[in-house]
Here is the input.
Amino acid sequence: MKRVLIATGGGDCPGLNAVIRAIVKRASQEENWEVLGSIQGFNGILWEPQEVIRLDEKTVAGIHYRGGTILETTNKGGPFNWPFRLPDGTWTTADRSDEMIRRLSYMSVDAVINIGGDGSQRYSQQLFEKGLNIVGVPKTIDNDLSCTDVTFGFQTAVEVVTEAIDKLVTTAQSHNRVFITEVMGRNAGWIALHSAIAGGADICLIPEIPYDIKQVKKAIEQRFVFDRGFCIIVIAEGAKPQGGDVVGTVSDEIGYRDLRLHGASARLSDELKQIGCHHEVRETILGHLQRGGIPIAYDRVLASQYGVKAFELVKEGKFGQMVAYHHPNVVSVPLAEAIATPNFVTMDSDVLETARGLGICFGD
Ligand code: F6P
Here is the structure.
């Protein structure tokens, strides 16, 4: 009997369960493959007692439309940064990656499929370099992983934001107000950009293009005639003014290394007041609504394609690879290439050109 283990790491994302189900369904067509799942990324393998479960067709029945992940996830710790407390009470981290590989070998695990974003796929590459048979599946609502046209979960997030904008438009119009919608996108503005186009926004502020507040004010004024009118602004959580920085707070959660970004919309609102924008401004932060809930059909299909392909790679022994979508095919790319450079909105990006062609202001 051969064994493949699945782990879901990093922030959750609509479509994770559809990938898990697809791997299990594909593996069950083989006579000699068993599928295991580690709870909360790789933590389940390292915990004492271990938390690793057997996944069969019964376990995954009907989970393709459920958000989140039945295996749970975490964006803290991991085999290379295992947090533990020193005798003096302070926290530090340890590299337990070699121990984890040994444990997998004792468990007779032949291969691992790691479903995760940028950080998780860096772990995949490091583990591959240490000799682990591993395949990556790209997950992130931010769509910031390279070498694939799209990550699953992204389109669902865009759908959530677009629906929100559609609702905000009617209240903005009725009250002659400016509405700022803050969306996820730590370093990449893809969610903001796509939903600004889909929702017909007037202004879109993204991490890749630091904004000039005067340009933003000017674009707002163009939407009002004698105080009548409305304006819709989409701002990514990682957007910043020219010469400024992102807004957020340092997390006190053990093992959480990122800055928790929030408040870009409130800061923009203050900046607008300071330079004399006299219209009523309201802010809406969509936050984790973009990550929760059911995946749209597009993401269910993509996630299923990724799951089946990931198992094929395992079966063929093609390790150190990440499944990817190169329209119209699902292919595999070396993990090393996928993590080399992040996928950010570039100034020659076609979608950015479309947005500019629609007259959307980026504050530059
Ligand atoms: O990586 C995806 C993402 O959605 C980022 O846009 C966001 O900053 C982050 O996750 C928030 O993650 P969490 O709230 O789980 O720490």
